[in-house]
Design brief:
Structural class: alpha+beta
Order of helices and strands: EHHEHEEHHEEEE
Number of domains: 1
CATH topology: Chorismate lyase
Number of strands: 8
Shape: globular
Radius of gyration: 15 Å
Largest sheet: 8 strands, antiparallel
């Protein structure tokens, strides 16, 4: 059954580390390699369009790895959007997008509501990913298994940066993405 706790990623982000893709869980590797939209890849693999379930949106602290990826001090004020990507009653992906409070991208991020971020990033040619996604792993705890995911930094030509993290839930790893999704 689908449930969306207010902050599903609240306890996760402080325990995240980057890892070489080859060390990621084998079922997660094809999802890490997706060059295009995660939303489209999930729709293609599952046969149904996913829905965005907002979990949290507002001011938040940058985690150390987020500050490093954005190239700023961890003390900078940030804004976070956390969502669950679901198909039917299945939670498949938890995603967290962060930007700085003074970033030109903030109004766009604030206005998304239930719209997938991909509908902006993959449509507006001003947005670019300077490199491939990096594999992430949330360290396991006695009560929670490890979550594997990916992190992508997006930059807009006219100014603006977004750090997008996507964590793959066990239900997603039962599917295999199509080879080329853009």
């Amino acid at each position: 059954m689908r449930s969306s706790p207010r902050r599903p990623l609240r306890g996760v982000v402080g325990k995240v580390h980057l890892l070489p893709e080859r060390l990621a869980a084998p079922p997660a590797r094809p999802w890490i390699r997706i060059a295009g939209s995660m939303t489209r890849a999930v729709a293609s693999a599952c046969g149904n369009a996913p829905t965005v379930v907002p979990c949290y949106e507002g001011p938040d602290r940058l985690q150390p790895f987020e500050a490093r990826a954005l190239g700023v001090s961890q003390r900078r004020r940030a804004y976070a959007r956390e969502i669950a990507l679901c198909v039917g009653s299945l939670n498949l992906v938890l995603a967290r997008t962060v930007t700085l409070m003074q970033d030109p991208a903030l109004p766009m991020l604030r206005g998304l509501n239930r719209t997938p971020l991909a509908e902006v990033l993959f449509v507006d040619p001003a947005w670019r990913r300077p490199g491939p996604g990096l594999a992430l792993e949330q360290r396991p705890t006695p009560c929670e298994p490890a979550l594997t995911g990916r992190m992508c930094l997006w930059r807009r030509r006219r100014g603006g940066s977004l750090l997008v993290q996507e964590y793959f839930l066990p239900a997603l790893l039962q599917y295999t993405p199509a080879r080329e999704i853009s």
